[in-house]
Every structure is written in structure tokens, then in C-alpha cells.
Give the backbone structure.
Amino acid sequence: MDPIADIIETLSSLGEQRYGKENVSQLAHALQCATLAEEDGATSALITASLLHDMGHLVDKRFEVGQKSEIDRHHENIGAAYLSAWFPPDVTDPIRLHVPAKRYLCATEDGYFDDLSDASVRSLKLQGGAFDKAEADAFISQPHAKDAVRLRRWDDLAKVPDLATLSLEHFRTHIDQVFVSTRA
């Protein structure tokens, strides 16, 4: 069993599904996010997190129930838990924190909310809305929270139909650098 090959296969095959109500597929969104991270000089861990940040949507057996019923399935937690068998916290924590990072940015950055896509505004409501000051302060003090904010910014930008990106295979090098199997 090659878990990296399985993860790439999951992303490439299931990733052809549309990304929620956005005009790109899950795979296109992931590749755009990872390409932006690499262009911004991120570490291999953060590039991998950017590529895999929505893996929870793909491995969640009840994803469709959440989509149809407008229920937050906490894909960030599902994805981080799934990937924690093979990756360290500098990959999985930004994934786990990328939704709270949106709530943080809505609370702390003027104009951030105004630039969210319609789909992201809808999901923000399901996710609890903007943080209050105490929640924002508690969030940003967590390990890897600043990386989650960087990932969130790329996530917000990675929704452009037909945008050219680096290939999925290109990112295998970054994945290989941070892969650490914790399964016995």
C-alpha cells in the first residue's frame, strides 16, 4: 500500500467533482491553492497543506448529506484527522485551522468579508460567523494559526475557472518531503 499514491488518486479521481457552489472542481481548487503557496515561497509542509486542505470533502462519506441539507460537516477536522496518519502537525494543523482562519480574518481585517465569494459567505454562516475579539485572540495564539491564515488567503483566491496551474505530479515532491507515516 502506497498511501501517497492513494491520496493522489483520491484527489485526482474524486477531485473532478465541483467545488461546492464555486465554478471550479475540487482538484482545480486544490492545484490553484498549492500553486499560489509555492509561488509565495511557502514551505513544503504548507504547500502540501494547501493542496490537501479540502481532503475532508473527498473522504467524508456523508459529504452529500451536508451539501443537500446545508449542514457544516467540519471538513477541516475530517481532512486533518484522515491525513494525520501520514503527515505531521505542520501539515495537518493549517488544514484543521483553515476554516477558523476565515472566521478570524472576518473579525480582524476590514474588507475581508466583502471579498468572499457567495459560496464562502454561505459557508461562513454555517461555520459560526466571524469571531469576536476573544475568539480571534485565542485562535491566532495557536500553533500553526498564522500558516492557516496564509492558507486561507490562497484558498480564497483559488477559485478561478480554467486557470493554469502546476500539475498534481509536480506537488508529489513536496508531499514526499513531509510524509511521515504514523501507522504501524
The mean pLDDT is 90. The radius of gyration is 15 Å.
